[in-house]
Amino acid sequence: MISILRKFKRALKNIVLHYFSSSVKAYWYEKNHNFGDILNPIFIHELSHKKVVWINPTTYDYPNYIVIGSILDRVNRYSTIWGAGFISQESQCPQKPLKVCAVRGPLTRKKLLESGIECPEVYGDPALLLPKIYSPKIEKKYKLGIIAHYIDMGNPWIKTINDADILILNIQSENPYDFIDQVYSCEKIASSSLHGLIVADAYSIPSLWLEFSDKVVGKGFKFHDYFMSVGRKDTAPVVVTEKTTINFLLDNFPSYKIEIDLIKLIKASPFKYAKTLLTHSEGTNDVR
């Protein structure tokens, strides 16, 4: 009886949310306050000019959006996808989504096509568009910023860093603009978090892919998916051990050029005001 009442309340709540609210409904992983995840409501609000409400696609059978993150394993038949990706080679969409406007990268697109889901050849993590909505007004303060994936934040090596020229950033910062400012204050970024690398690329800051452990889910799938979308040739991360030095990291930064059609990504957006970003189009970024 209790179970039936819960289902009824949930169904009633969803009906009210759909029919009596002009808000945009979207899903993002909300438990860990991870930077890429908390960007979703901010970004969607910026492009839709509407309140953004978190929903659970497993129970919300009405139109919803899947935007930033490795969350395609949570879509339902009412989901519209713009920029999201899979977390691993094994991940699948539980249902065929309503529409795919763009995905994070070619590996995600390949998996969708293999599942019989139509997907245009439009790539890009929407976080690459951050400079079009936020421009930091600060100077460089650090020669290197180090970002650990939230699952690696307790790594002993990180705790040994005691250098005024090195900034340790928290990917779980509750204020994403503070995090962006911190990234921008660094001449270079070394990160085991994908969105640490993406934000650096967005703001033309050289970045290096790190690995602190094998705990990050996906065996590098999401990293390679993203790298292929922007033309980065990274094949493997720099594995950090207790013997790794800052100088070693600085000596191993790759030279690359970000090549992605952000105008194409913007035009593919399902949100009404996304096209206002076209007036701020900046082309490709050189990272040397």
Characterize the structure shown.
With 288 residues, the protein is α/β, with parallel strands linked by helices. Mean pLDDT is 90; it is low at 283-288. Strand 8 (189-191), helix 6 and strand 9 (207-211) form a beta-alpha-beta unit. The protein has a 5-stranded parallel sheet with strand order 2-1-3-4-5, with helices on one face. Strands 7-6-8-9-10 form a 5-stranded parallel sheet. Strands 11-12 form a two-stranded antiparallel ribbon. 42% of the residues are buried. The protein is globular. It is built from 9 helices and 12 strands. The protein folds into 2 domains: 2-126 and 262-278, no CATH class; 131-258, Rossmann fold, CATH 3.40.50.
Compile the SSE list and pairings.
Elements: H1 2-19, E1 24-27, H2 35-48, E2 52-54, E3 64-66, E4 79-82, E5 99-102, H3 106-114, E6 144-147, H4 156-159, E7 166-169, H5 176-184, E8 189-191, H6 194-202, E9 207-211, H7 221-230, E10 238-239, H8 246-251, E11 256-258, H9 262-267, E12 285-287
Parallel strand pairs: 1-2, 1-3, 3-4, 4-5, 6-7, 6-8, 8-9, 9-10
Antiparallel strand pairs: 11-12
